[in-house]
Amino acid sequence: MKRGLRMTLFWFFALAFFVLAPAAVFYTAGYRISPQTGRIVRSGSISISTSPRAADIIFNDEEFVRDTPYIFKRVLPGKHKIELKKTGYLSWSSIVTVEPNMTSSIEGVQLLKDGSDMQVVLENASSLMMHPNRDIAAYVERAENWIEIWQIDLRSGTRFMKGRVRSFSDEQIELTWSHVSEHVTLRIGTEVYVMQHDGVIDTLTIPSEAQLYWHPQYDQVVIVNGVTATTYPVESDGFSASSLLIVSAGSQLIEFSPQGDSVRVYRLEEGERRLIAELSPDMLNVRGVIGEYIIIENASRKFVVLNVSQNASVEFEARADALVLDLHRTQLVYSDGFAIFTYDLQNKRETFYIREGRLVEHIFPAEQYIIYGLSEGDWYALERDIRGETPNYLALPWGNETIKNSRLSQSGGDIFLQTEEGTLLRIGVYR
Fold it and tell me: Which range of residues forms the domain containing residue 13?
């Protein structure tokens, strides 16, 4: 070979080496050229696992010969569609956001068996209300000049008419369950009908601005009107109050009253008020109650947990931008917008559960699951694993319905979901 040709080849390969070697290094390090922007970006990855294993993966509508568990490496940053399919199971899909040099995890997706997993128990039920502690629900049906209150067994679907009242009013109807029995109140404007489980119906007339509660410990209806709170059946002379807000916490009624530059917290006892705390004036938004604990949020998205059995001492406080908060038994469940946490009021322990790539907009705890919805309409049940292992997803297979309430069946096998549209869903959980 002539010397000139050899030199030409030498410089060609040398140049190719200096051009391609850095490109190979960058490629191996996970850098890619984005087709949208033409810029070099750092790629990420997506880790996928399912229960059961060996589900087919469809990535961005392109079917791959891949089974779960699997890790997609060197994925361009942005949104990617993942669909999982397995014979005999409902398909599952989600949009995953990949960040540069980060791994997006879809771990432990619990695929539901095809067939009888999701059942519509009720559809478009008016004033639907699930019992807080039992596997029953009440709803309303209108007949000619009558309002019928029906009770349904969530598990069997058996239903019966609990009672009916004569009504010509078009005012909004409100149903409220007793915490300790199967009594229910039906409110239409100023008329309140107390329906006992033995079929007896009592009628009360209350002011239109009055608030209606069930006592948290006894079968008593609590009527709060301005500066007084009375009970029905009336077993005392009532309470003297001057409240902005009265809430029931455990076996107590607590009043929040603005006084100058503070909010005073009183415990309402028979015939008197007892001052138990003073809060800053912006701590006015009561977000919920767990037993003896009251959760209050201020304007800057900071919330505190008050223990009213210990003179409203502060048990826990946190700040969460885009706060989502819901309550169940002894745990506080909340989100800073993208991560989900719990705080155990008994053990005084905060637990991190999961971080999502999309905004967490709704949370509904249901026993060992946390039901949550994301900004793009996907819903999941996240298993609360007390052993500290990676929690499992249970993908909830329906459209963009807005969930109002959720609960796990007392027997532990089904999740019941109540939508804003008045639909009641039952989803079987398979292990």
Answer: 1-31
